[in-house]
Specification:
The chain has 273 residues and is mainly alpha-helical. It has one domain (35-273). The two termini are 30 Å apart. Helix 2 packs parallel to helix 9 (191-246) and helix 7 (114-125) runs antiparallel to helix 8. Helix content is 77%, strand content 0%. The chain has 10 helices and no strands. The longest helix has 56 residues, at 191-246. The protein is elongated, with a radius of gyration of 27 Å.
Length: 273
């Protein structure tokens, strides 16, 4: 579980909810006044519909799977990846059989990117040239980045479309409110009170659009972008490690070269092993 995302959602919800509760208490209005089913349908349904028009349907459907990715933490550090690549480098220097056996196991720190390591290892075992290995792995990473950038763009589009649909809902509410102004008031009803209530309902849609965009969709898109950037570093590190393994570089030298991808506090020296 990604604690940053969870804490942000809880903290934001708590602050917004507290502010709404205080405002409701001061004005004597129920918190339920902030809920309107029609407004919710216009904002959420309209945003999803517009996104479906702009992108392929399969990309929109994948949004539900992306939510799990947003809340999921990697569970490893780049230092762990360096450790595992050094172990693979050692097994490759010992012989083909040991290297094949090492590739069949899934190191804990590589379980999310192990396919890239295995693909690189299979290229090594197949006798592929170093330059070709580098080109193939860079192509793999380029297409992965393209796919995940598309996913981020879908989520970002939801954040872009939500506020305009909030405004659409507000305009719809205002149309009906102005139409009602010409109608005779119900028995004992205060026309000004009815107008104020209608205006409040119309503005709720704008509120929903702003909340969904700035509290959910756009932050989620930024989270996906950040994860994509992290994977780019991971992929560059793994590609470099695979190339060093293919050249049968000593594990100590592999560590020294891969330490360049790590922050200083995470780097291990050969004497630390």
């Amino acid at each position: 579980m990604n604690l940053g995302t969870l804490i942000g959602l809880i903290l934001g919800s708590g602050l917004i909810g507290t502010a709404a509760f205080i405002s409701a208490s001061q004005t004597g209005v129920s918190l339920l006044a902030l809920y309107d089913t029609v407004s919710l349908l216009i904002v959420v349904g309209g945003s999803i519909a517009a996104t479906a028009i702009a992108f392929k349907m399969k990309d929109v459907i994948r949004l539900f799977g992306l939510l799990k990715m947003i809340f999921k933490d990697d569970g490893f550090t780049l230092g762990d990846v360096v450790d595992d690549l050094c172990d693979l480098a050692e097994s490759n220097r010992r012989g083909r059989k040991e290297f094949e056996a090492a590739l069949q196991t899934t190191p804990q720190s590589m379980k999310f990117r192990m396919h890239m390591v295995r693909d690189g290892g299979e290229l090594i075992l197949g006798g592929t040239k170093i330059d070709d290995i580098e080109q193939i792995m860079e192509n793999m990473e380029a297409y992965r980045e393209q796919r995940e950038m598309q996913e981020m763009n879908v989520m970002k589009s939801l954040g872009i479309y939500a506020p305009p649909f909030g405004m659409v809902g507000t305009l719809i509410g205002l149309v009906f409110m102005l139409q009602g102004m010409g109608q005779p008031a119900e028995d004992g009803a205060d026309p000004q009170a009815q107008m104020g209530k209608s205006m409040a309902v119309a503005l709720i849609t704008t509120l929903y659009g702003a909340l969904f965009a700035n509290f959910l969709f756009l932050p989620f898109a930024d989270k996906l972008k950040g994860k994509n950037e992290d994977k780019k570093v991971q992929s560059a590190l793994i590609t470099e490690g695979v190339l060093l393994i293919a050249q049968k570089v000593h594990p100590l030298q592999v560590r020294e070269k891969l330490n360049a991808y790590l922050p200083p506090k995470m780097r291990k020296k050969p004497e630390d092993e």
